Amino acid sequence: MAAPKSCALWSYCGRGWSRAMRGCQLLGLRSSWPGAPLSARLLSQEKRATKTHFGFETVPEEEKGGKVYQVFESVAKKYDVMNDMMSLGIHRVWKDLLLWKMRPLPGTQLLDVAGGTGLAWVLGDAEELPFDDDKFDIYTIAFGIRNVTHIDQALQEAHRVLKPGGRFLCLEFSQVNNPLISRLYDLYSFQVIPVLGEVIAGDWKSYQYLVESIRRFPSQEEFKEMIEDAGFHKVTYESLTSGIVAIHSGFKL
């Protein structure tokens, strides 16, 4: 059986908003089918040859989803505690700011991708959402999109499932815009966070990946261009805490 695809849990709720990240597993049956046609086997071989990044490591694309799943499966029990420790609780302020920007009204059809809690659950792939076109008023994703194998494809899917006039909101780690703070942040990220992960969660490797995945994620301007390329309009962003994180916003017109 093929490796798990890059995937996430969605909480789809009209009046609630979810925060925590959890991994989920989707298993694909591709070249492992004994009777698969030659064209399918060749396509599978071509996919295996395509590489992507997992932190600073280069891996086959088909393996990344499984590796990301293992990371969040490993850190799930201590996820909230580690978030509080790593950010000194500031992550809660960032999420409250995202919620304030969203300002959902009763009856709003909201899709929260890479969420851990919610009223109604759907299991699926961020790059191939199991929803009809023009379904949701708001699409949110917090600290999840950098773990997706094909970010551009996930953005296109976000655009597809939003109604005309719908809003895309993304809270994600970004690029620090102050040179001095950037050096201190790098020191803290690479020397302290993995140690905290080992002491509190018993997991150095997952938090090393966390730091590396943050460094690999595009800058505020680069991500803004990616959102625009997916078809969104009026794309803006706000950097928080000297650019440690940013909230990007865009509309489907």
Describe this structure in words.
It is a single chain. This protein has nine helices and nine strands. By secondary structure, the chain is α+β, with helices and mostly antiparallel strands. It has a single domain (8-178, 212-251), classed as Rossmann fold (3-Layer(aba) Sandwich). The strands form two sheets. The protein has a seven-stranded mixed sheet with strand order 5-1-4-6-7-9-8, sandwiched between helices. It has a two-stranded antiparallel sheet with strand order 2-3. Helix 5 links the parallel strand 6 and strand 7. Helix 3 runs antiparallel to helix 7 (193-201).
Short note summarizing the structure:
The protein is α+β, with helices and mostly antiparallel strands and 253 residues long. It is 42% helix and 22% strand.
Spell out the blueprint of helices and strands.
Blueprint lengths: L7 E6 L24 H12 L1 E4 L2 E4 H15 L3 H9 L2 H13 L7 E4 L7 E4 L11 E7 L8 H11 E12 L5 H13 L1 H9 L2 H13 L3 H10 L3 E8 L4 E7 L2
Parallel strand pairs: 4-6, 6-7
Antiparallel strand pairs: 1-4, 1-5, 2-3, 7-9, 8-9
Helix pairs in contact: 2-8, 3-7, 7-8
Pathway: Cofactor biosynthesis; ubiquinone biosynthesis
GO molecular function, one term: 2-methoxy-6-polyprenyl-1,4-benzoquinol methyltransferase activity
Subcellular location: Mitochondrion inner membrane
Keywords:
two-stranded antiparallel sheet; SAM-dependent_MTases_sf; 7-stranded mixed sheet; disordered N terminus; Rossmann fold; 253 residues; single chain; transferase; alpha+beta
> How much helix, percentage-wise, in residues?
40-55%
Report the CATH architecture: 3-Layer(aba) Sandwich
Order of helical and strand elements: EHEEHHHEEEHEHHHHEE
Number of alpha- plus pi-helical segments: 9
User: How is the largest sheet built, in terms of strand order?
Assistant: 5-1-4-6-7-9-8
* Gross geometry: globular
Low-pLDDT parts are 1-45
Strand percentage, roughly? 15-25%
